[in-house]
Amino acid sequence: MKCPFCQHDDTQVVDTRPSEEGDAIRRRRRCVQCDKRFTTHERVELALPVVVKKNGSRTDFDAVKLRSSLMLALRKRPVSAQAVDAATRRIEEKLLSSGEREVMSGQIGELVMRELRGLDKIAYIRFASVYKSFEDVAEFEDVIAEVGTTTGSSKLKGGKSK
């Protein structure tokens, strides 16, 4: 590690401890030449795959965009921010653990649908209606029927039992 003061390339680690957040290692270093001290932080560097869109273009994975898509589907639904953050983390972890360098946007869409289905059925239907580009009412009804069979259709019709 080069000294930021004199650019000498020989420094000694004086103290090592985890950062306050616990996601990095904080190291106090001392330059052998000028004797000045400085702090460095060591973090794990993970590379999320590049997203290949339907038109073939490629873009970097954007966790903010992923979270905003989830939030849009969940707008005015009783789902906590912590649940959305957890869903976002699960999707990112699946992408990281896949080890793939590229991932099709459709795969991410499927992961989002799986998470939304577990979080809120109405949000799932909202997202599916846009993601799957329904052509007619029959396709929309099919998704509602699919969700209704797993949860009981009374919850989709205002929550009142028959």
Topology (elements, then pairings):
Layout: E1 11-18, E2 24-31, E3 37-43, E4 50-52, E5 58-59, H1 63-73, H2 81-98, E6 102-104, H3 105-119, H4 121-131, H5 137-151
Parallel strand pairs: 4-6
Antiparallel strand pairs: 1-2, 2-3, 4-5
Helix pairs in contact: 1-2, 2-3, 3-4, 4-5
**Which word captures the global form?**
elongated
**Helix count?**
5
The largest beta-sheet arranges its strands as: 1-2-3
Q: In the residues, how many domains can be counted? A: 2
Averaged pLDDT, please? 85
Q: Portion of residues in helices?
A: 40-55%
Structure, explained:
The protein has 162 residues and is α+β, with helices and mostly antiparallel strands. It has two domains: 11-43; 50-156. It has helices at 63-73, 81-98, 105-119, 121-131, 137-151; strands at residues 11-18, 24-31, 37-43, 50-52, 58-59, 102-104. The strands form two sheets. A three-stranded antiparallel β-sheet has the order 1-2-3, with no helix packed on it. A three-stranded mixed β-sheet has the order 5-4-6.
